[in-house]
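Input/output pair, single chain:
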Amino acid sequence: MSSDISTPKNIFSRPALTCFLASASGVAFSRIINAHLLLEIILSAALIFLCGILAFYFRSKWKIVPPILRILAFSSLGFLLLTFEEYRFEESLINKTAAIYSGEAVIYGRVISNPEESTSSASFFLETDSLQIDSLAIHSREKISVTVSGMQKAGRAFPPRIGQRVKLFAELEHIESAKNPYEISFDIKGKEHDGIRARAYLHSPYDLYITESYSQLSLLENAEQFFQGLFDRSKAIIANSIDDSLTKGFVGAVVLGDKTGLTAETLDDFQRAGLTHLLVVSGFNVSIVALLVYYLLRLIGLSFRRLRISLSMLTVLFYCLVVGLEPSVVRALIVIEFILISRFLERKPDIGNLTAGAALVTILLHPYDLFDIGFQLSYGAVFSIIFFYPTFEKLFITEKIRQGKTFLFKTVHRTLQGFFVSLSVFLGLLPVFLFHFHRVSIVGLGVNILAIPLTAIITIFGFLPVPISLISGWLGSIYGEACLWMTKIIGFAAHFSGKFDWSVVQLPRPQTIIILFYVAAIFFIIRSLSRKTFFGRSLIVMSILFLLYTLSVPFAYSLVKSSGKVSLLFFDVGQGDAMLLTAPNGKSYLIDFGGITKNYSAIADRRIAPFFKAEGISQLDGGFITHMHIDHYGGAVSMIQNVSCKALYTSGERTTGYAAYRLDSISQALHIPVVRVRQGDKIDITNDLHIFILNPETTTDEISLPLSSEGMNHGSLALKVVYKNSSALLLGDIEGRDEESLVERYGNFLYSDIVKVAHHGSNTSSSQSLVKAAKPNYAVISVGKHNTFGHPTPSVVKRWIRSGAAVLRTDKEGALLFQSDGSAFRKIDWR
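Output:
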């Protein structure tokens, strides 16, 4: 089973590649265009039909026309497929129902996925039979996702099994886009990758009734259950064969793609070291399994070559079905099977064309996969090696090294090969890492040279315990222990190389035009025919980059950083507050930090931190904690651990509890000064931008306030941000009597463009006198969806509307962005 694979020099001689690029461009263009979906479908279908007619007409006249028409047709096909998927979702009966009516519903349906359980919740997919909303009955067979909370109180009967029919008393919810900039929306991922049309949320497992306990499974579901059982059995065998937790987790990741056995610290080490690609099943793993099976069959004496290839093909297919058909696995399966078929037919395959063909099949069957990170990383790595590595080998590995027979020459040759393969992948995936993760591992280039061959060996040793343990558990444990020291070496290399500050470079998300320039520049350099040309072209590209930099051309995209403008971003953090103030000079101030989840993790980690990474904000010039309620300061610990903070501003409130204790201890450990402010204080950010402290009258450590909710609310900071002739009033959680004091003290000074409504729109705040004094254009209510407090109170909302303000709620509209050039704050659409 030779490894030589033909690779034509001209990429345009690969028809599958041109068709894939054309289809991908059509899919991407469809995501940008925002027109009537049905009209887009009709026009793109008509264009495909027209291309077919013209191609037939010009087939023997102008040879250049049919290839151009083929590219145009495939581009239109990609556009059509994604548009059609969007149209199916928009026209879904359940989606329309959820968009119009989000509330209590009785849902009947059949469980179609294995439930995933955690300590407090469970989730599964349901194929609906019908929905009943009030007196309206809707019959529709569509897929929805179901989440059940309160699982810790349930018995063993929950959740239901696949195939059972159930009745749910649930809240029906519309699938929405990300609520905050750069936030990963799992609802959207469900819509795009699983065909989900809506969400159903159950507050208790006792709102779920099994109406048909017998699990009647289809042939496909039986197959899914069978392979799921094999996956669980393989996972158990690996766990039983290996004692060391790191080795067990790493082998489970590289063999089965299961990262649940790895700790968060280990995953972060691998990410910082640029080794995360080793923790997923991809073409690397699948090809090793194919080679392992092929040579094992030859070792046991199976001499018939085509039979060995056929058995290898079946084994690879079986393996991929067990680990799950993720995009990277599907790509690897198609490519490896095509290669094996070519070997079977005794033909030399073109790996570039095969990979492009696999990518083309993938996006034609599922166009949303083009935007999947796994798809981009998987295919990007292979294409990078195919197109970049041959140039590096030709220009920088001399003939003497390639032809050397001694151990030294062979070692140098393999080391250089490993380095240039790693460099090719690094260069090819750099835009993907910057766009999605906003950071690049510098040490990954070197660490991969050691880690990749060791991982190949571990994959072999990790794969063998599964079949061997079926024969002998003792033999399986021997093979399992063989992975120990190699895993220790990789783990140590990842931890050691990733712990330095310089090992990872944090960069903001690049502009699309810069990504296109980068891709063009890389191909311009990589097509050099000599070292002299290579370095000459590299110098030209660097000169252009330097010129763009001196001309102050922005390399990175930013929502909030704008010359001469102040930005105020209200994050959607559920039932809590978090606002980011960005000055024209780039200084950033976070006013409150959001709360925590039921699992005690910071909401800021998922809703605020991604924004800071994407925008390249690595330092807070100040953080305000309006008062010590957990929904305002809960995310502070997480944020100041990941972003340096020059100072924390508080009213001096103190409270008990583990979260407050951690905030005190970590701010002391990081030497962050805690500044107590009160009414009359002013913070000058620039000559034109100031923050005025309006409440409390004195720092709360100087007076006796009870630790009750009401007492803390009275001590809440109230701020006014003033930029030239524009202003925003941020009222924290102050109560009605505090508002009355502000009106008496400040009067017309309270007039503002924006008011952050006090206490999430509670009826204890937003007094008539304050509403009249502020008279804003926008009244922003930061509030959680379906919160148990009933916020905001309808009377408060009406009061602000009557004042002439546009009432904006984070639970309905998501994050809200405002910018001011000094005349007034205006709402900006960030989506």
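The first strand starts at residue 104 and ends at 111. Residues 407-436 form the longest helix (30 residues).
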